[in-house]
User: What shape does this take?
Amino acid sequence: MRKKIVAGNWKMNLTREAGTMLISEVVNMVRDEVNSQVQVVLCMPYPYLGFAKRMFRSQANIALGAQNCHEKPAGAYTGEVSASILRSFEVDYVIVGHSERREYFKESDELLAEKVRQVLANQMTPIFCCGESLALRQNGDYVGFVKQQLTTGLFHLPAQDFIRVVIAYEPIWAIGTGLTASPEQAQEMHAALRQHIANHYGETVAAHTTLLYGGSCNAQNAPSLFACPDVDGGLIGGASLKSREFVNICKSLPA
Ligand code: PEP
Assistant: This one.
């Protein structure tokens, strides 16, 4: 059975008081309402990581996530944070290759392959993001493009490492736009990616790979997206900033 995951990506939002309040509300609601088989991940800005874990350490189905890390193990990279620093603060998951980082920070799949290596070498789980632009969706081989992102970013890994990676399909045209992929569009891509993984690593590895959907997911559309056979949960941006909405999304994921 593959893991079912809902991960919240706060991005660069919420100062200390509001962020602490959000963590505490989510922790209480997840404890009382969310099936313990669903793994909830909170990916917050770096300064929270030092204390957030203490707020949910006793709750096994909430994990701590970061939104990025540097591709080098250590050194003179002022302002950057390495995977080993994250692990020393008990981070469990790291988002790698979010489309905002690909676009604004020019992160290539080759660079992301290095980040994935660092995350895995430090016993954390990468959430590897992929997805096509609107122009590609309308006029190009969008499935082929996303498959290639996986090939370059991940297929250098041996199977025993690849199996530890979570993949998030996030069509760029759906992120923060209110334009969600339909369940049919999400399923089409997820099934194609699972087949792509099967072709490279075999059916068993593919069947165990967790594939998340992300892009304007909310409590209304999550149930139909999560009902798709190849959608194993979600990566949630804007809606993860509202405790009730986020926990309702978590509750709609069949365990
Ligand atoms: C995201 O940034 O990963 C995301 C899915 O954002 P949103 O849910 O706001 O579209």
User: Anything to note?
Assistant: The first strand starts at residue 4 and ends at 9. The domain at 4-251 is CATH 3.20.20.70 (TIM Barrel). The chain has a mean pLDDT of 97.
